[in-house]
Amino acid sequence: MHNNIYSTRNTQTITKMGLFLAIIIATGFFSIPLPFIGVPIVIQNMSIMLSGGFLGKKYGFITNAIFLFLVFIGFPLLAGGRGGAAVFLSPSFGFFIGYLLCPIVIGFILERNTKKSFVVTFLAYLIGGALFINIMGSFSIAYYSHTSLINGLKSITVFLPLDIVKAIIAAIIHQRLQHLTLNGIKND
């Protein structure tokens, strides 16, 4: 009986990871190019954030790592149909590091949200998603623009208003669907 429960839980977890991987890929079809800094405005990062919120630290990280691995080996899954190892040698690289690590930050904050407060949920997506991803991106923008980190940080301010809205939307989605999707996955 114990093995059957463990097997069912694994199947549910893998299914949820696959679903989030599909959502991340599907949201990559939408982007607004910003040629002046070489990084587009995307909604894909909101689904990256949500993977951390719904799958937790461990499984969100693994799901995002699988996504980035598929991009690395050449699948054109990033916003604008980009893919391949070359995109990891571009101003977007820091954002990819943020994508990989944001589930850890979001999952950590949400684990402590025992009262399931909207404000704490929003702060998890704001800090672990919008701010963390953009701060990580500022490093590669500064590096590839041959400028200071301060200028790299200034460059990401163009993303912040929309990313704050994405954090609000992610928190609303999380609050509305939390009881449906967190069932069966322990946030490791």
UniProtKB/TrEMBL annotation:
Membrane topology, from the record: Multi-pass membrane protein
Location in the cell: Cell membrane
UniProt keywords, alphabetically: Cell membrane, Membrane, Transmembrane, Transmembrane helix, Transport
InterPro entries listed in its UniProt record: BioY
Coiled coil feature spans: none
Pfam families tied to this protein: BioY (PF02632)
MF GO annotations: biotin transmembrane transporter activity
TM annotation in the entry: 20-43, 59-79, 85-110, 122-144, 156-173
Gene Ontology CC terms: plasma membrane
Family per similarity comment: Belongs to the BioY family.
The protein's name: Biotin transporter
High-level lineage: Bacteria, Bacillati, Bacillota, Bacilli, Lactobacillales
